[in-house]
Every structure is written in C-alpha cells, then in structure tokens.
Amino acid sequence: MTAPAPEPALNVARPAQERAALLLWLKEQLHAEYGERVLEPRREPMHELISTILSGRTTHDDEEAAYHSLRELGDWDAIAAAPVAEVAHAIRRSNYPEQKAPRIQATLKQIREKNGSYDLEFLRDMPVKDALKWLTDLPGVGIKTASLLLLFNYARPVFPVDTHVHRINTRVGTIPRMGEQAAHRALLALLPPDPPFLFELHKNLLRHGQQVCQWTRPKCGKCVLQERCDAYAIYGDRVPSFSEK
Ligand code: SF4
C-alpha cells in the first residue's frame, strides 16, 4: 500500500533577493488595484497608542467608542490614577476590558515616569531601533503597536505587520511560515526604508486582506496576486483557512 502524499508545504525557502523582488511586484499590483495611500497621521500620537491597545480583537467602531468613553474619565494622569474597575467599565465596548485596563494604566504610568509628560515628539528624531525599544519596553505595547505609531505619526521607516499583512505574505510566499512578531523583522529586512512606500503597502495589504484574501475562503478568482501566489499554485481554488502556526 502506498503512503499518502505529504501535504504540500507553503514557502519552500526562496533566496532573500527573490522574496524582495516578489514584494515589490506585490506592492505594484496592489497599487494598480487600490491606488496610492498618502501617509498622514490619522490621529494624535497618544490617541494612536491607546487606541491600538484597545483595538485587539475589537471592531473599529467599538475601539473608537471605548476610546472616547475612556477620555471622559479625565486627562491621562486621571486615567492612570483611576480605580482599575472604572477604567475597565469605561472601555467595555472593547473586548477583554479587564485585561486591557491595567495594561493601559501601566503604560500611562511608565510614559509619565520615563518621559515626564505624554508628549512623544522625541520619537520623531530618535534612532528607529531605540524608538522601537523605548515603545516596546512599555508594558502594554508590542512591536505592532510601536510600528504603527512610528510609521503613521512620525513617518519612520518601519513596517507594521497585522493579521492581514501576515496572512497574505505567508500565502504569497514573501516570507516563510513564521509568527506575526518574527514577520516584522523578516519583512522589514526585505523592504526599502521608505515611509510612504511602507505606508501604502501596509494600507493596501489591509484592504486586500479584508476584501479578497480573507482568513477563510479567500477569493482567489478575483485576486491580482494569484499569478505569483504560492498558496494558489499549491491549492488552486481551495486555499485552506489560514493558521497562524
Ligand atoms: S491568490 Fe488567493 S491565497 Fe493567494 S493572495 Fe490571492 S486571495 Fe490570497
């Protein structure tokens, strides 16, 4: 009896140069499909930082509602000093408020302690590596949140990897299968240090992930990346649901 064929593996190692070229092609395809995205801050830095913490597993409308309700508690010092249950109640439209409330308060306290104020303007000129470290040393801030803040608010050359960016790049084959955290470093190493370029690529990947290359049942028949997509080459119209692992 013959053994069953092993399931084809995604992303058999490609040289970095080839993956970098594939990323450039991908960016151009998405540009042709969705157009240019202009890099400009969507909200002030502290708003961006705290809202990104609130956004985990939460819709955009609920994230905004939670943020505005949080700000009704007072200024950042007042929010940091409020009873944690009050903060959790204020952000209840966000998922996991009991976990996010102490993280937000710890983040605020540490910013005040390290910086003396909530003005983050110094991040504009700090070396990128140091700015990423400064932010990710805060208790509630991971590499994605730090990268979003630095790229969106200060036009620094970093590349935020959210679930859509991670999924599409893994399926197409610009990165081997790896976690979202590791994908930040892997993708950034392949991309030009050009903030407008990085911003447009991030935003267009987000849109493509929401509308076409969804977590389950991606619409490969409508996809402008189909021609060079590893997952499509292997599975055709039956690309399986994406697993983070
Ligand atoms: S061809 Fe399918 S799996 Fe590949 S990027 Fe497009 S939608 Fe995603």
UniProtKB/TrEMBL annotation:
Its cofactor is [4Fe-4S] cluster. Keywords: DNA damage, DNA repair, Endonuclease, Glycosidase, Hydrolase, Iron, Iron-sulfur, Lyase, Metal-binding, Nuclease. SUPFAM superfamilies: DNA-glycosylase. InterPro entries: DNA_glycosylase, Endonuclease3_FeS-loop_motif, Endouclease-III_FeS-bd_BS, HhH-GPD_domain, HhH_base_excis_C. One of its GO terms (molecular function) is class I DNA-(apurinic or apyrimidinic site) endonuclease activity. The keyword Isomerase does not apply. Residues 54-211 form the HhH-GPD domain. Its EC number is 4.2.99.18. PROSITE patterns: ENDONUCLEASE_III_1 (PS00764). CDD domains: ENDO3c. Pfam families: HhH-GPD (PF00730). Belongs to the Nth/MutY family. This is Endonuclease III domain-containing protein. It comes from Deinococcus antarcticus. The gene is nth.
